[in-house]
Specification:
By secondary structure, the protein is α/β, with parallel strands linked by helices. It has helices spanning 49-52, 77-84, 98-112, 134-147, 170-180, 219-230, 240-249, 254-257, 265-295, 308-312, 314-323, 350-367, and strands spanning 11-18, 23-30, 36-40, 44-47, 64-69, 72-76, 119-126, 149-151, 154-156, 159-167, 188-194, 199-205, 208-215, 302-306, 328-330, 401-404.
Amino acid sequence: MIKKDNSDIVKLVLTCDLGASLIKVLAQIYPDATPQVITMSPEVADVEKESVVGLDVDPLTSDAAWVGIGSEYYALGSLAKNKFAGTSAIRDLKYQYAVPKLAGLLWLACHHLELKEAEVFIHLLLPSGEYKDGNNLGKQLSAALKGGIATPTGRLKLKVRNFMVSLEGCGVLASRRRTLGEAYSKRTIGMLMLGYRNASFIVVKGKNQIKAESTDLGMNWLVERFVEYASVGLCKDDLYIPSALVKANLGNFEALRSLSRKTKSADIESDLALFQKSLTLVRREYCRALLRWIRNIASVDEVLLCGGTGEFVRPELTQFFEEESIPIVWNGGVDIPGTLDTHKLGNRLADVWALHISHINMLDMNFQYDRQQPLVPQPAKPVNTVQRCHPDRWKNFLPMLVDSPSSSS
């Protein structure tokens, strides 16, 4: 049960996708401020306190942060990558570094939205194998914020009023449910999420989850195979490689040329030919592996396809599901407002944006707020007196939702 009081405290809403290639967050002062997209590169590094204390980081112009939680300190984003040889920790669970990353994102959000104090409502996307850890994550973050988290601009102390975790793809599913209305409960829907680190397939009928499976067949699988075949000194952790592969996949092979470390023209041309041959082979291998996995999951009435890796193999996925006579809805039909997409991420925002809409809808119902205007675009308005929500009223709004106990000080 959340404690009641009569104070006028700002409500900060964060909807988070801790992506392995890019962290994406929707931050909004509830109820009527316009949501903002905040991004941070995924690198993280555990560091010494002496290495970061006093280190200046501008939260308004960089995708970097450092945080201290108890005796543990972490560099995040471009700071971790450029100064401390941090990595995106592809092989680690997202859960492992979720607390310091969320702390860093809260610090960035507070500066972007010019907040000094706030009540925080967080909704986090996690893979199917990790989302049950939501209870522990919420408790750990609440405890850290209560004690105060060290940041470049002083100690960050916020009150976490609600912490929720949903499966990756849940935002797109919720959007599809809003579109289908009553027809949603009569369909068996498959949700195929192809991200950088893994691939997930969720099957639901109405509010019932039938199946949820995950595999490591994300873009990283393809990148590792490409580096193995090319074998010319490339590093699989170099995030420019997937970008070059995507561009080459669209016909811009000059992007592959820039991967070569050679200096002579003839050697560069030789590398380019090798890169093209390697990409063609690993792309075929990836499609075979992915489709082999999909065939063994379940039969569905329609499939929602999303994630940047899905676009990479769109022709093969389209052909496969057409041959199976299964209708495809790319990105669940989620529309990304142009005024929201300030980082030009396109459909990479589909899941977290759709989940943010559901997050705000739940807040509206709990606080009995009568929303008259759409979330985007909309000018900021004064924040109303804070209201408390009863935890039970959060239930049954999203498919496969895990509620973590609300925290209060």
